[in-house]
Write a structure and sequence with these properties.
The complex is a heterotrimer of chains A (about 375), B (about 280) and C (about 280). With about 375 residues, chain A is of the alpha+beta class. Chain A contains 13 helices and four strands. Chain A has two domains: about 70 residues, no CATH class; about 230 residues, no CATH class. In chain C, helix 3 links the parallel strand 2 and strand 3. Chain C is globular, with a radius of gyration of 20 Å. Classes of the chains: A alpha+beta (about 375), B alpha/beta (about 280), C alpha/beta (about 280). The interface between A and C is large, with 70 and 88 residues.
């Protein structure tokens, strides 16, 4: 019998994991994944958006496993996403085709197609509702029945897809530079790491995957003082976008050959910023610039903040960190920031010992007596 | 013996414009421009066909009002900006046969590190403001290939002493220094690799008068001792008069007059130069 | 819904993508190759770069050793090993000599590596010039132009301030006379082991999305000045309290047994090496 390694680490880990399971189960109750899906819509939307993986059921499982911790749930989803082969890219999705559930504009009272409030917390009083403690599934069914009768939703034939964009109205008047279709293939940041300076498609992807809190904070900083911007929300729309993929067996990618694979709910924001434009003959004009935000699910604050940051990064004013693409894009990802911060919990014995050596040496006053310099080849320069 | 002395620096037809130009301004005919500005497309012609030579051991002054293109000229020569056209040649680089502006960025780096020194008007641009003063000197020496700490430290001390930075402050970061001190550290840094050519851009602007005098004095002394060639840019004719052997007068991106400094001050030929000289008197 | 993960976690095209980045890294020793770092089931900063390299390389015949700060049994090493064996079923070992792939955080094993072995080091911050220049765009240009004054300037400043180079771990190195490289936070003690290593050494930075490599027998020189040579941590007159080894990297312990005075004792940091010694002796 020789010496063997003490299996301390393995045993300790196993016990810690048991402890984690215990914390999840200790009250003798478990939450059904479909209940999470039914009742935690906003958390699911947040997790799907930050993990850039659209699946309510996977998000619900992740939330259950993470005991409701969004950072952990996003982590699980992202790791799972890595294992999925990517077989198809969808056809271009146009937000004009959205089946709208909510749509507001801060620019105009009346917009073609009308303001649609839809579902939002914005108009509620934030009073804790203690009646929810008593709520049952039966209550829900009764409420739904009454609501169907009252709203007459079944007989409502308002057309909710193909609604015109508010910004098109401004474009027609020439207040907004017409933007040409840009058909360059977007870069995929999950397949190729970003290089600076970045392309717009890279920026938008990093922003939409960004941690909700981080995107909001930086957007707020740009709005409050570090950028002196005050955008107007031209249009915020939430609804379902149909997604199609081309038939992989034919070369001609006609619309009618494409397969409908489902719909995704997104929040889309187009913000307007007054910008100064240099005209011919030295004249200047003010026109509107755009900031664009889009997120999976209903994530309104994040989408608006994203539209601010998009505009900031397009402008790139060197005075403000919120306009610096390295500063913004390299620090807003949930998995990256939480991972690196939590790695500080790992042992650093070796590195600390090495620092200790340096500190001791400098305390001794410069060069060590017992120099252990190593013979190394000299490089030639 | 060569028939003609080869200049240390030779600038040929240097051009720098901001903007793409348009049908109106592409020939740069004066009547179509407002000064050096195209009213149609907004293009600015900052330097137009600049030709000048700097000879060994001389100080060449470039004078002009702000917007005359003199600082743009300097940043082009130090590769801080790319030129729109033209060339520059240094005698100690491939015997003056290669246009510096068309060299690779790696070669430009070499030229900056080994053959040039520059002192900016704003010390923040020329210094690592958070690194020690002596570290700043060392940076330039390291870039020029030095790997001996004691030698670099000695050289740094010598230079900093030369520019009157007290020895007990050399390990301090220049961000703690006064403007005049920062400027002197910058001069020491620019000189550290014994460059054949030193570029000075408005080095005394923004300093108060007594400090100005001491910096000018320093430049004069250094030039005399090290026999270095200097190209100095200033809007201040007094500075030029004190330092420059020859002077070039710039206006709206062009050289309007050049000659011996005394001659230009005594007997200016161009209307603009006359105005400039009279304003000094 | 039950899901079986693919061999070594990734789908095959992801593995190929990572291997392509590795090949490029080997072709340009010391150059940081950007790669599309995947999100992993362990946290960014906990070895995802190294893990991705290991998973992209591992085959059914491989024998794996994972160590973290010298220990095969530290929680993170165990965790990484668990993930790899769970998705591959390959054999793991503590024995450096037996392993075909060694993934390590912040140490190079004391037992010299051999031809045919691969050492995968986990890297938190791959950019050796980051302190000197915060912008990635700028540091990329500095590398391209081989402008490394900043790396030496940082060392020069330390000498001016502290009388000596005061780098802890992660002392920068010059690779093959071309690229300055961060060796990952290995102690200075391990830097000389990089030079002309018989084994292939790979560096993976997951969060920063970079891979770089030292092919076998590459010249690696720790940055230093002519009159201030590179020095490793000193363990002069100290030996391991268990196996008696000298000339190895030692962990410092405050011996609780000796009361309040707390005498300092030392022990091999590389646990696999220490066990190896103890077993040799007991035989």
């Amino acid at each position: 019998m020789g010496y063997v390694a003490v299996k301390g680490g393995t045993i300790a880990i196993e016990e810690s994991i048991k402890r984690l399971t215990y914390e999840r189960l200790k009250q003798g109750k478990v939450i059904d994944v479909d209940r999470i899906e039914a009742g935690m819509r906003c958390l699911i939307d947040q997790v799907m958006s930050e993990s850039s993986l659209y699946s309510e059921s996977l998000a619900a499982t992740a939330i259950k496993q993470a005991e409701g911790n969004p950072e952990e749930a996003v982590f699980l989803m992202r790791a799972y996403r890595s294992t999925l082969p990517r077989k198809h890219y969808s056809r271009i999705v146009r937000s004009e085709d959205m089946v709208v559930e909510r749509r507001i504009s801060a620019c105009f009272k009346d917009i073609p197609g009308g303001q649609i409030l839809g579902a939002a917390f914005d108009y509620t009083q934030r009073l804790l509702d203690f009646e929810l403690n008593e709520e049952t599934d039966e209550d829900a069914i009764i409420w739904l029945h009454e609501y169907a009768l009252e709203s007459g939703a079944e007989n409502d034939h308002t057309v909710l897809d193909g609604l015109p964009k508010v910004l098109d109205y401004l474009r027609e008047e020439g207040l907004l530079a017409a933007c040409e279709d840009n058909d360059t293939e977007p870069d995929d940041v999950t397949k190729e790491s970003i290089q600076f300076p970045t392309s717009r498609s890279q920026r938008l992807q990093i922003l939409t995957r960004g941690q909700t809190g981080a995107v909001t904070s930086l957007g707020y900083a740009a709005l409050r003082s570090y950028g002196a911007l005050h955008p107007t929300v031209g249009e915020l729309r939430i609804g379902n976008l149909p997604v199609y993929v081309d038939n992989p067996f034919t070369e001609e990618n006609e619309d009618e050959n494409a397969y409908y694979i489902g719909a995704i709910k997104v929040t889309e924001v187009e913000s307007l910023f007054p910008v100064c434009k240099q005209m011919k003959h030295g004249e200047k004009e003010i026109e509107f610039g755009i900031g664009y935000g889009i997120c999976y699910g209903q994530n309104e604050t994040k989408a608006i903040a994203m539209s601010i940051l998009d505009h900031c990064l397009e402008t790139g004013n060197p005075e403000y960190p919120t306009h610096n693409e390295e500063f913004v894009l390299l620090h807003i990802d949930s998995v990256e920031s939480t991972g690196f911060i939590s790695h500080l919990k790992l042992p650093h014995y070796v590195t600390f010992q090495s620092e200790l050596d340096s500190v001791r040496k400098s305390k001794k006053g410069g060069k060590s007596k017992e120099r252990e310099s190593v013979e190394e080849p000299r490089h030639e320069n | 013996m060569d028939e003609f002395e080869q200049p240390v620096l030779s600038v040929k037809n240097l051009r720098k414009q901001y903007g793409d130009g348009c049908a109106n301004c592409k020939d740069r005919q004066a009547e179509r421009l407002i000064r050096n500005y195209c009213p149609v497309c907004g293009t600015v012609y900052a330097c137009q066909d600049i030709n000048l030579d700097v000879y060994e051991g001389e100080i060449l002054g470039v004078v002009g009002e702000s917007g005359s293109g003199k600082s743009t000229l300097m940043s082009c020569l130090y590769f801080d900006q790319n030129v729109s056209g033209g060339g520059a040649y240094i005698s100690s680089y491939h015997n003056g046969q290669r246009n510096l502006f068309t060299e690779s960025s790696q070669q430009k780096r070499y030229i900056r590190n080994y053959l040039l020194g520059k002192v900016y008007q704003n010390p923040v641009l020329g210094l690592k403001i958070n690194f020690s003063a002596i570290g700043n000197i060392a940076e330039k020496l390291i870039a020029a290939g030095d790997r001996r700490v004691e030698q670099m430290e000695a050289r740094g001390k010598e230079l900093l002493e030369h520019v009157n930075i007290p020895v007990y402050r050399i390990k301090e970061a220049p961000k703690n220094f006064s403007g005049g001190m920062q400027q002197r550290v910058q001069i020491a840094k620019a000189l550290s690799n014994n460059p054949p050519l030193l570029l000075l851009d408005e080095v005394t602007t923004g300093l108060d008068l007594s400090v100005q005098a001491s910096v000018l004095d320093l430049i004069k002394t250094i030039q005399r001792e090290l026999k270095i060639s200097i190209l100095i840019v200033s809007h201040d004719l007094a500075v030029i008069r004190m330092l420059a052997d020859r002077t070039v007068v710039m206006l709206e991106g062009r050289i309007v007059e050049q000659g011996l400094t005394d001659q230009i001050l005594e007997d200016p030929q161009q209307a603009y130069t006359q105005e400039l000289v009279h304003s000094l008197l | 819904m039950r899901i079986n993960y693919n061999f070594a976690f990734f789908d095959e095209s992801s593995k190929r993508e990572i291997r392509r980045a590795i090949l490029k890294a080997i072709a340009i020793p010391g150059y940081q190759v950007p790669f599309a770092s995947r999100e992993m089931p362990i946290a960014r900063g906990w070895g995802t770069g190294g893990l991705q390299l290991t998973l992209s390389l591992v085959g059914k015949e491989d024998i794996l050793k994972v160590m973290d700060q010298g220990s095969d049994e530290s929680v993170n090493a165990v965790n990484i090993k668990k993930l790899i064996t769970k998705t591959t079923g390959i054999k793991v070992t503590h024995d450096t000599g037996e392993a075909s792939i060694i993934q390590s955080r912040h140490r190079i094993p004391e037992i010299p590596l051999q031809e045919g072995q691969i050492l995968v080091l986990q890297v938190p911050l791959p950019e050796p010039l980051r302190y000197y220049e915060p912008s990635e765009y700028e540091t990329k240009k500095l590398h391209a132009e081989q402008e490394y004054s900043g790396a030496w300037l940082m060392l020069f400043e330390q000498i001016m301030n502290y009388g000596n180079m005061a780098t802890g771990a992660d002392h920068p190195v010059m690779v093959h006379g071309r690229y300055v490289m961060a060796p990952s936070p290995i102690p200075r003690f391990d830097n000389p082991k990089l030079n002309r290593s018989k084994a292939l050494i790979l560096f993976g930075a997951g969060r920063e999305k970079k891979v770089y490599a030292l092919p076998p027998y590459t010249q690696v020189v720790s940055l230093a000045f002519d009159d201030y040579p590179f020095e490793v941590e000193s363990f002069h007159n100290k030996c391991c309290r268990l196996c008696g080894a000298t000339g190895v990297y030692l962990d410092e312990f405050i011996d609780e047994g000796t009361g309040a005075t707390g005498a300092t004792t030392y022990q091999c940091n590389d646990m696999g090496f220490c066990l190896h010694n103890l077993n040799q002796k007991s035989r």
